[in-house]
Model the fold of this input.
Amino acid sequence: MLNSVKRFKKSVRFAKTASVEDFEKLYNLASLRMKLVLYLGVQCSFTQIDCYDLKKLDIDWNSGELHKQRQKEDMPRLAVISPFVLQMLKDYMEQNDNTSEYIFVEKGKRITPAAIGKAFDKIRQKADVTPTLKYLRKTALTTAGAMGASEVSIKLLAGHSTHIQDHYIEKTVEQVRNACGLIAEKYFAGIEK
Done:
């Protein structure tokens, strides 16, 4: 029995996540672009490649729903962006006179994943926190699960296979909205104005 307990302890892995305190430290040092990367990472489980590839057409600007194919696995993903973050996205595009189909554009050029990663590492070092950019995605999914979100809504948020047919997915929009709301409640409460 003792050996099986040892094997179990070795096999259990916990996702590395960002604490609310780490998120706030990063946020306080971030530019508008990096604040958006932080929000999209924590609320929508985005990576730097997802941010780079985000198009204006991926977002329903009225409801905040984000429908996007996950680049890595070409799976549909669904997230709901809070109104506060939607407004920040609009401000960012306006500030950069963005006429591109992509959101992360400055001076007429798309911001590369490498530039996003480098900028994040800079503020991470200044904030003296451990979480890397990859932690934000894991934070979103772990937080949603810990706060009671359904497995299907977490898989849709992650862009993982749900093993259900597409015509059933529409019924889970409200579940994903709730999961994203729970994440926003935990991480953005002290920041949103």
Summary: Confidence is low (pLDDT under 50) at residues 7-12.
